[in-house]
Amino acid sequence: xxxxxxxxxxxxxxxxxxxxxxxxxxxxxxxxxxxxxxxxxxxxxxxxxxxxxxxxxxxxxxxxxxxxxxxxxxxxxxxxxxxxxxxxxxxxxxxxxxxxxxxxxxxxxxxxxxxxxxxxxxxxxxxxxxxxxxxxxxxxxxxxxxxxxxxxxxxxxxxxxxxxxxxxxxxxxxxxxxxxxxxxxxxxxxxxxxxxxxxxxxxxxxxxxxxxxxxxxxxxxx
Length: 222
What we know:
Layout: H1 2-35, H2 38-60, H3 65-91, H4 95-121, H5 152-160, H6 163-191, H7 195-218
C-alpha cells in the first residue's frame, strides 16, 4: 500500500513539473516576443518615430516662402540699419542719438545671426554681407526693393554728414527705415508659418514702433 502511494505521488509530481515547464516556456515565449520580437519592435518604432519626426521638424522648421522672404530681406534691411548706426559713433553730436544708435545695433546684430541660422537650417542661401566688401559699403543696387531701404546716394550723404546735420539726417532716415521694417514684419505676421519668425516679426513691430515715436519726439514732431 505504501509503495502504491509513493508511485502515485511520483506520478503527480512529474505531472506538476511538466505543467510548470510548459507554463514557463509559454511565458518565456511571450517575454521574448515582447523584448525582441514584433511587439517590442513596434513599441520601439512608435517611441522613436515621433522623436525622429520632432527632431527633423526642429531642424528644418515648419516654414513657408513668406518666412524665407522675411528672413532673407530683413537680414539685409537690418544690416543697413547697423551700418547707419555705426556711423553715429563718431559723427553724431547728440549723446541721445549715439545711445539710440547703439541700442539699434545691439538689437539687430543678434537678430541677423538668428535669421541667418534659420536660412541655413532650411537649406536656403544667406545673403552676402555687402557692407563687408571693399568699395561696396553703400552699394544697395543688388538688394531687393524693400520698404524703408536707403539708396546708395542717401547713404553717401549720411556718411559725409556730421554734427547736428548728421543727427537730423540720421533720425529722419532711421524713422523711414523703421517704418519699412514694421511693414515687412506685418507681412510676416499675416503670411508666415514658422513660429519663431512670426514671434520675431512681432518683436520688431513692438520695438521699432516705440523707436519711431522716440525719434519723432527727438525731431520735435511729437
